[in-house]
Specification:
0% strand, 2 helices, flat
């Protein structure tokens, strides 16, 4: 997209802490943090550097 100044990509999942039972309290927040741990092929730092290199922001909210 040569003439595009910016792009936003969002992924929303219709569940979260409000949907947790008392026994599972905190599970959504824990899973959110797992998204930032990296993969077998790339570390978390490598992923963040690649996103930063193009001016991106990698974040999540519970």
């Amino acid at each position: 997209m040569p003439h595009t100044g910016s792009v936003t990509l969002s992924c929303f999942v219709g569940v979260g802490s409000r949907d947790e039972s008392p026994e599972l309290a905190g599970a959504s927040h824990f899973l959110e943090h797992l998204l930032f741990k990296g993969t077998l092929a790339r570390t978390s730092r490598e992923i963040n550097r690649a996103i930063d290199a193009v001016g991106g922001d990698f974040n999540a909210y519970t």
